[in-house]
Amino acid sequence: MAKIVRSSAIGLVFSWSTALHAQDLPKGVSFFDDFETIDETLWGISDGWVNGDWQNCLWSGDNVAVQNGILLLDFAIQPNEKRDYTCGEIQSRHVYGYGTYEARFRTAAGTGLNAAFFTYIGPQHGKRHDEIDFEVLTRDTTAVSLNTYVDSAPKNGKRVPLPQPADDGFITYSFVWEPDGIRWYVDGVMMHETPPGAVLPENEQKIYASFWGSDSFPNWMGPFAEPETNLTMQVDWIAFTALGEACKFPASIVCLDE
Q1: Catalytic residue among 131, 204, 245, 258
Q2: pTM beyond 0.85
Q3: Any catalytic annotation for residue 135?
Q4: Using CA atoms, how far apart are residues 123 and 40, in angstroms rounded to an integer?
């Protein structure tokens, strides 16, 4: 039987309502996490709340697990006191600055759903809203949306094709954040970069991986359609390499420059 490990450290779960101010969040260092287990020194698990009226699922710790070295984030048909569905998310316990952010994951397919790897800091942490995104809107798994937010305003966005549908297999998503620009890569190929002089995020941010749904953004995420069964985003690994540090693992795009 496949081994499934779920977090039991409920007291460590990190919620919006109890979010520390950014000045109190510890600064993280370079890491590579291949999810042999859920490293609760690195990750908190979103549990027991929704981010807003627009989200049709409740974050649930029951929707986060590891199995055979893969992080599983589920979107489940599970009516509860707040929503008709539950969804899964992890968020880092540290904030990270300039450097290379990378994740290898596989999505499910389904309209009205978002499989995301991104960084974020915001008013819940005593800072303006800064964000850098990879979002696979799974109504169309042949492309990924790239974007930043600076003081809550979307900037530098682009939708780019994927080398294969995101639900067909694992794909590596990477971005390099530097003081003068951001570059996004898919399977080691640069797909987008900010233009010279672009307005960029400046605040250190937390790292997130999440799989959630909404019926509030049909023009963006597609009209929500209840899936026939529970769906899963599978994450093979997540890594961060601080700017100026050497390559930490062979699959990193940092190795391409060495």
Answers
A1: 131
A2: yes
A3: yes
A4: 24
Residues 233/167, Cβ–Cβ less than 8 Å: no
Of the residues 36, 40, 89, 135, which is catalytic? 135
**Distance, CA of 85 to CA of 184 (rounded, Å):** 32
pLDDT in tens, 103-153: 999 999 999 999 999 999 999 899 999 999 999 999 999 999 999 999 989
Asked if residue 52 lies in contact with residue 213, where contact means CB atoms within 8 angstroms, the answer is: no
Tracing tokens 């990477």 back to the chain, one arrives at 174
Question: Comparing C-alpha atoms, which of 167, 101, 108, 89 is closest to residue 134?
Answer: 101
Output the six-digit token pair for 85.
């569905």
